[in-house]
Design a protein that fits this description.
The protein is of the alpha/beta class. It has 2 domains: about 1-140 and about 315-335, 3-Layer(aba) Sandwich (Rossmann fold), CATH 3.40.50; about 150-315, Glycogen Phosphorylase B (Rossmann fold, 3-Layer(aba) Sandwich). The protein has helices at about 15-30, 70-80, 100-110, 125, 170-180, 195-200, 215-225, 245-250, 265-270, 280-290, 295-315, 315-335, and strands at about 1-5, 35-40, 40-45, 45-50, 60-65, 85-90, 115-120, 135, 160-165, 185-190, 210, 230, 255-260, 275. A 6-stranded parallel sheet has the order 2-1-5-6-7-8, with helices on both faces. It has a 6-stranded parallel sheet with strand order 11-10-9-12-13-14, with helices on both faces. A two-stranded antiparallel ribbon has the order 3-4. Helix 1 packs across helix 12 (about 315-335). The two termini are about 15 Å apart.
C-alpha cells in the first residue's frame, strides 16, 4: 500500500501522538508498505500552521489522518473525500474556551464520519461515535516489563513522578500546589514545553520539587524505579489516555490521574486511583494517604504492576501495527 500519514506531531517532537506515528511509520515500512509522513513544520505554543490540508492527495492508496487538529483534520476530511481515509481520533480537545470547544467537537465528529474507518484508543472514546466503522485499538507500550519486580527496593523518601509535556492542559500547576502542601514528599517533573520556565519560577522556593529535561528511555526507567507514584494531573479531555501511567505501573509506581474520559478507563484497567480534575485538594489528599500508609501503597502498587504486565503482554507495538494494517486492507477492499 502507498499510505500518506498526516499527523499534528511527529519525531523528533516528543509526545504521545508522535510516538504512535513513529511506531506505525517504521512498522508498516518493515511490512513492505510505503509510508509518507506529513506534519506541520511551524508551531506557536498550542497553534500549528501548515498548507497540508489544502491539497488533494489522489496519488495515495489511503490517507491515515491523526487528529483532531483544527483545520488540519477538518479540511483534510473535506477536501480528500475521494481518497479512502482512516481517521484516528486521539482526544476531545479543549481549545480557547469550553463553549467554543464543545461546538467544534460536535462539528468535527460529524466530519469524521467521512472517513472509511475511525480508530480510537478506548471504549470511552468509541462511545462518542454513534455510527460508522469504529475500531478500538489500544495504545502499545514499547517499554518491556522489568526483569525484577521487587517494589520494596524503592528509596524511603516517598516520590511522585510526572512525565510529559509542559502545556496548559497537563495541570502541572495543580501538582505544584499539592507539592507545596506535602513538604515531606519529593516531586520530580520530567519533560519540556513552553510553560516550563514559568512553572519553575512558581516552585523556585520549593525544596521538594525538581525539574528534569528530556531524558533517555534508560534514565526514564530509572526514575520510574525510584518513584512511588506516577501522576497525570491533566485538567481536560485534551488528555485522553496516559501511556506514562502504564510505563510507571510496570516499574511499581501507583498510577493516579484526573477523572477524565479515556484516562479513567486506563486507570481502571491498571487498578490505580482517580482524583477530581483541577482539584489540588483532592490530589493532595490522595498522595498523602499513600505516603502515610506504605502498606496500602505497596498493595496497590503490586496490583497495578500485575495489571500493567498483562497489558503490555497483549498490546505490543506489533499488535498495534498489525491491527492497523488489517484495517487499511479492509477499507481498500470495500472500494
Amino acid at each position: 500500500m502507498n499510505i500518506l500519514m498526516i499527523s499534528p506531531d511527529a519525531p523528533p517532537y516528543r509526545g504521545g501522538i508522535s510516538r504512535l506515528v513513529s511506531i506505525l511509520d517504521i512498522g508498516l515500512e518493515r511490512l513492505g508498505h510505503h509510508v509518507t509522513l506529513s506534519c506541520p513544520k511551524y508551531r506557536i505554543k498550542e497553534f500549528k500552521f501548515s498548507t497540508i490540508p489544502f491539497h488533494r492527495y489522489n496519488e495515495f492508496d489511503l490517507i491515515h489522518l491523526h487528529g483532531p487538529t483544527p483545520l488540519l483534520s477538518d479540511l483534510t476530511l473535506m477536501i480528500n473525500a475521494k481518497t479512502p481515509i482512516v481517521y484516528t481520533h486521539h482526544a476531545e480537545i479543549s481549545w480557547l474556551s469550553e463553549g467554543i470547544s464543545k461546538i467544534y467537537r460536535g462539528f468535527h465528529r460529524v466530519l469524521a464520519k467521512k472517513a472509511r474507518a475511525i480508530v480510537v484508543h478506548s471504549y470511552d472514546y468509541a462511545s462518542l461515535f454513534t455510527s460508522g466503522n469504529i475500531a478500538v485499538i489500544h495504545m502499545p507500550c514499547s517499554f518491556k516489563a522489568p526483569k525484577t519486580n521487587n517494589i520494596t527496593q524503592k528509596q524511603n523518601l516517598f516520590t511522585v513522578l510526572y512525565v510529559g509535556q509542559f502545556r496548559p492542559f497537563k495541570g502541572i500547576d495543580f501538582l505544584l500546589k499539592a507539592a507545596s502542601m506535602l513538604k515531606d514528599v519529593r516531586f520530580i517533573l520530567v519533560g519540556e514545553g513552553y510553560l516550563k520556565s514559568n512553572l519553575m519560577c512558581i516552585s523556585k522556593n520549593s525544596k521538594n520539587v525538581s525539574f528534569v529535561g528530556e531524558v533517555s528511555d534508560e534514565k526514564l526507567r530509572e526514575l520510574y524505579r525510584q518513584s512511588h507514584v506516577i501522576c497525570l494531573p491533566s485538567t481536560n479531555t485534551t488528555e485522553a489516555y496516559g501511556l506514562v501511567l502504564i510505563e510507571g505501573a510496570l516499574h511499581g509506581c501507583v498510577p493516579i490521574a484526573s477523572n477524565l474520559l479515556g484516562v479513567r478507563e486506563n486507570i481502571k484497567q491498571l487498578k490505580g486511583i482517580l482524583f477530581e480534575p483541577k482539584s489540588y485538594v483532592s490530589l493532595t489528599k490522595t498522595i498523602r494517604t499513600l505516603s502515610n500508609d506504605i502498606e496500602l501503597w505497596a498493595d496497590i502498587a503490586k496490583r497495578s504492576q500485575n495489571a500493567a504486565h498483562e497489558y503490555v503482554s497483549i498490546h505490543t507495538p506489533k499488535y498495534y501495527i498489525k491491527r492497523h494494517e488489517e484495517m487499511f486492507k479492509k477499507c481498500l477492499q470495500s472500494i
